[in-house]
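Issue 218. Parser rejects a valid record. Input:
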Amino acid sequence: MADHDIPDHYLDGYAALLADASATGRRLTRDELDTRRALGEQAADAGYGLRALVAAHLAGARLHWPTGALAPDSVMAAVEQAVDAFAEGYERAQRQAMRQEEAARREFIDDLLYGRSDMGQLAERAERFGLRLAYEHAVAVAEGEFAYDEGDAVARSVEQAMIGRFGDRDILLTTKDGRLVCVAPGDQDEILSFFAKQAYAATDGGHVAIGRPQPGPGGVVQSYEEALSTLELAHRLEFDDPVLRSADLLVYPVLTRDRQAMADLVRTTLGPLQSARGGAQPLIDTLTAYFDTGCVAAEAARRLKLSVRALTYRLARIHKLTGADATDPVSRYTLQTAVIGARLLDWPDRPL
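Output the parser choked on:
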């Protein structure tokens, strides 16, 4: 709304206040201050700018300045009080509007990420926040050592970098459960890649997971849940990569889809390792390092801070206990799958 042509009723009683202050030297009463505050709230709700409203008050003071004022200082004090109370009411209305907007935005984000609302209504609400849910979207989630809120310096720095690079085109940046979240069009991977880079830096080396693009209003929920599952995988399997994509890790959900079958595989294949001196964990760590390095014994030994001879001895011990040879391509797949299952199921720390 244009700020010029401020309606006169926002200055109701103003001239009389100045005249009375000139005649008596008094200050404004509590009721008079409350009236000015109420007028300020009304002006804010109507969409007028505060600078134009203050200018209208100053112009009104010049126009209605009492002729031959007996107490000009008192008149000026009345102007200051009136303008201050009016601005206070205006700012109070603005804060209330911001709180309502923030509450509406938070409710929308919760419904969007949890899929708790009617999808048709959700799509309509999304347009208010710059999203067109009829299209494909993908979600990236970042977490660090600490929990983050939207007002935190970390969240603000990422948001500023994103807006500086892409504007606010079809992007939703928020926080959820202490994590940074970015929702972007599924065909604009550069946005999520840039978010991942900024979030990794801002969280001082946290993890970022990017879900696959999914269509429709429910696609945001699916991509968000994929990103969360990928973060959980990163913790369980101790992945070092700072940025992980769900599309690159689809084998893991497949492996864990039948938990009982995976538990049976772990128990049958790796169970005999529990009889080793020191238990199963050191030998599982040996297999993990061996497979993670592409079955290069020298590199695996370096990671484990062992000699190659000691590593070779451990592999031979595993072969003897389990009957499976990690150096044999046929046995290797079964052992590697069982090791992945053990890490996903927290075995042997947690019984199967």
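Fixed in the parser; the record now loads. Strands lie at 137-143, 172-176, 179-185, 207-210, 243-245.
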